[in-house]
Amino acid sequence: MTGHDHDEQDESLLGGGDRPEQNALSDDNNQFDTGTVHASFSSTQRLLYISHFLSTWNSRVFEFGAFLFLASIYPQTLLPASVYAMTRAMFAVFLSSATGYAVDRFPRLSSDQVPNDESSSQLWLLLPLCLLAAAEKLGSVMNTIAVERDWVVAIANGFDERLATLNAQMRRIDLFCKLAGPLVISFVDAASTKLAIVVTGSMTCASVLVEYFTIARVYYKVPELSKSKETSSAESSSWLKGMMHTWLRGLPAYVKHQAFLPSFALALLYMTVLSFNGQMITYLIAIGVSSSAVGILRGVAAFFELSTTWLGPILMKRIGAVRAGIWFLNWQLACVGVACLFFWISETRRITLAAGIVSAVVASRLGLWGFDLSAQIIVQEEVEPEMRGTFSSQEFALQNAFEMLAFLSTIVFPRPEQFKVPAAISASAVATACVLYAIFVRARRGHLLHLSKCMESTHRKKARWTALGHEPIDNDEVELQAAAPQVS
Predict the structure, then answer these.
(1) Domain 249-449 -> CATH class
(2) Which residue from 117, 145, 308, 395 has the least number of CB within 10 angstroms?
(3) Has keyword Cell division (predicted)?
(4) Looking at residue 271, what DSSP letter applies?
(5) pLDDT tens track for 138-177
(6) Where are the chain's structural domains?
(7) Nearest 5°: CA angle at 4, between 31 and 312?
């Protein structure tokens, strides 16, 4: 959207248009109205951020804490944590289409009121714990689809700058919660696991009313959110019929969409054990790293991820989201490859092994979340409003499917000394994502590298060399002199 378009949109929002005359009074009124609009947007931002912070904080604390609790019960095997996580992912795979259908078809406020606050109170019963965690996962998926993929677009109201600001700030909140939440609960867990469970549940219960109040205020402050989306009568006549329609036709529509390749490449990155998730947490604890140290390391990783929310927009502003994505993705591949080398180097001491793996994984988070921001911008710009929920639900289903495969890999190879095999599989997934995204970039831009600009850079260097008083080198003349016979 150009600056002229923004000016026209501001005029339409403020009741402007073709005015027969301009005077000081009308300019003052226009400035007052503009200030009112900006103040209203700022107020809406604050309410949205408060709700998102509380929801994300509780989700991240529960997500990290649950693995610490399981690791304290089963310290010598990855199997229980993998079964737990795989159950959560399995429910998300099979029911993500339902959540996407709800976001597309139901009023925006009702789809965002799904509770995201299940907590584990019967830790010794693995099956009930898995079911409760699956319910929490579904609530988290629906909240993410509704708010991050649909609400922010409606709130931005066509302003690219506002959309970029909302995306970056929402990601900062998510990454801050990933940094601080695990750090807090890991220190509490180091003191007492039972106390950590109580703290996790108490924080969740205390924030429910605040979350509901703030998100409801956002809904009523933004008229765009209350507008019904365009749906065909055949799809909306029956909820069950519409659900089956989404389930059967959602995937083909997703695959045929022009934003499929970046979305699928992002989903592939979830097939990894080289992140501070349950498998790697359990692995680090198994090789002797304390829970508090794991929390600190995850905090450091989240700090690197948080820096991406500033680096990403700067890079995308300079070279665009499409080009920035391939830079970030290649960086992640390089770091993950280094991490895998430490697993396969024989006779590596545990301290060296842990330090090398953690350092490479931490550095890889810059690439992961930078590409996440790039892909999110591409999807938001390419996907039609009435298709956002369905498209995002298919993407989330694939993300959880690949995450489930990652957990399956540690079920097949549950011993800590076998962890190098799932790590190699993770690196292969990142490499595949790089290839798929490169295909998208090649199709979109016609090339992967600006060879013409590289040639221009070479000519500029030659011109500067000549300006310093040196004669440019004629390569053809040099070759002829080298080929000429030497006369003694």
Answers:
(1) mainly alpha
(2) 117
(3) no
(4) S
(5) 777 777 777 776 777 777 777 777 777 787 788 788 878 8
(6) 30-99+126-224, 249-449
(7) 95
